Amino acid sequence: MSEQYQKMWTELGLDLKAHDALLGVLSEAYQKIFMAQDNRPQAMSYFDFVMSEVHGLRIKELLDEKAAGRKIIGSYCVFVPEEIALAANATLIGLCTGADFATEEVEKYLPRNTCALIKSAFGFKLGRVCPYLETTDMVVGENTCDGKKKAYESFKEIINNLYVMDLPQVKSANGKALLKAEYVRFKEAVEQLTGVKVTVESLKAAIKLVNAKRAAMLRLYQLRAADPAPISGLDALLANQVFFYDNPERFTASVNKICDELEQRIKENTGAFPAKLPRILVSGCPQAMPNWKLPAIIETSGAVIVGEESCVGERGVRNLVDGSGDSVDEMLDAIVERYFQVDCAIFTPNCDRLQHIEQMAKAYHADGVIHYGLQFCTPYLMESMPVQKALEQKNIPCLRIETDYSMEDMGQLKTRVEAFIEQLK
Amino acid sequence: MSSFAGVDIGSRSIELVLVDAAGQILQQMQADTGFDPMAEAKRMLAEVEYQQIMATGYGRNLFEISFDATTVTEIKAHACGARACFPTAETVLDIGGQDSKAIALFPNGKVKKFEMNDRCAAGTGKFLEIMAKALGFSLSEFSEQALAATSDINISSMCTVFAESEVTSLIGRGQSRQAIARGLHQSVVRRVKTMLNRVSTEGDIVFTGGVANNACMVQFLAETLQRQILVPPQPQFIGAYGAALLAAGL
């Protein structure tokens, strides 16, 4: 696809040579990891197409939207409410954080012992290889973990459109009030950016659109409870990663189409894998595109992933917004209500998350849980020990993994994962 | 007579064990892994006959492709081999060349939980090997001298490279080699203790892997953990032995 988009990428200021190299690696990994799978649902072909055009057609669409007067907002977190962006005539997209890039440049701004996800956000900017980032009119940085909130202070030096959103750390009345105040401030900032006021109608429509997108993902998750698993964990994760980039209506329709096919599969008792395979729930840090390392290891070691307890997973899409309010303020309250339930590890205490892990393990008939922690991600690594302990008390085996985006620990990871799967048999 | 082979392709050495249908050891061999483990494995296998073969160790997947064999992780292989030697053991500690593993078993021998060292060589055979060399000891001298030491020196670095420079500076300050050797063994024991305590806190421990030949490690572990340490004969073969038993369906 390179040729036809060269001009667009050049105008966006990308480093074409580095960008070509990135696309080369991405396409090779995609072939090796996704296309090599057996028994994929036919409807996954939509996602194959999306991936083949991930830096092409989709960017062109966003640029067309911009030309028509819309604004593009980038985000790094599921706490940034898409409903508000959409209601004020902006498109929200998730930004690239799933691969190491320009590490030497990054380490001029960040300590070496920073989590791979944060480094990646810097790497894509410093390496000039993320067309999404270059398309944005506003980038929202959110105060989640210490790593991210301090990193945004330095990020300001390298991007000129950063907007910082504060977030609560405790699920108290004060915490909720803070979230509400921040969402109101965000609404005003987006209105100022786009020159379009959020109205009752536009917010209602936006809530409906995002609810439909989340409902489609939730439908997909529930179908994974079946044995044989109708879809691989890799393909389900991919859909969830594309969730952050794609046009919402088209995405929803495509996921529902997959679900229709999966329902048919379940009726026919067929699946992406044979029945009775060990079933794994992955829980922990988000696996942003194109971070497919752990799921690829798990699913080539004789097990199937039946759920992701993650922000790129059920944690990110659980709960819909009540859009029945009659005023903007009422609906904003409903939005706050929904987002305030996200059980991110930045909250203390964060008891809901453990409950959700147990519920998901039960609902999807998981034989074991693999806790995925990014190295130097204090909140999730800290939670991994009590999570493991609590699960073991309920006789749910749990393996704690701590890794990053590099490939140097592949051998050790494979041994751990294989041994864990042997344990479940 | 039917025979079943287990091959353990480790980072430092390859072990091959042959058992009969009852699990009795017929033959065992060991060679350095070298730079071409598949060629080395091929050479070893050319000398024996077997009906089934099971591969384990870090090279198992490469072996699986080259020899059309089935594979098992080191964790299950060591658990199986250790239980064959000590049928009631519920904790296994394996320290090999580049890995160390603490494994807890259910009373029926199935793996209950395990912990592995992270990606560096801290707390492994390689660490001890490099430190012995830094002190100018052979591996057996290293262990003997550490046991003979009368004073303690605390070695704080667990990173192999940092520990080596720590050793160099201790030598430079005129500290006794014996005491340094003792401190190095203690540092590995501390590392292993954390890992073991995460999987089990009581009962006997079966110690396998090449490092179990180190008498000083065995003694210090027993003293520190206050648990009995059981070492099978030729503990470096336990991974391959376990794989052979699994190949035989035992």
UniProtKB/TrEMBL annotation, chain A:
Pfam families: HGD-D (PF06050). Belongs to the FldB/FldC dehydratase alpha/beta subunit family. It comes from the Bacteria. This is 2-hydroxyacyl-CoA dehydratase. It comes from Shewanella yunxiaonensis.
From TrEMBL, chain B:
Keywords: Iron, Iron-sulfur, Metal-binding. Residues 6-247 form the ATPase BadF/BadG/BcrA/BcrD type domain. NCBIfam families: CoA_E_activ (TIGR00241). SUPFAM superfamilies: Actin-like ATPase domain. Pfam families: BcrAD_BadFG (PF01869). InterPro entries: ATPase_BadF (IPR002731), ATPase_NBD (IPR043129), CoA_E_activase_dom (IPR008275), Dehydratase_Activator_Redct (IPR051805). Its cofactor is [4Fe-4S] cluster. This is ATPase BadF/BadG/BcrA/BcrD type domain-containing protein.
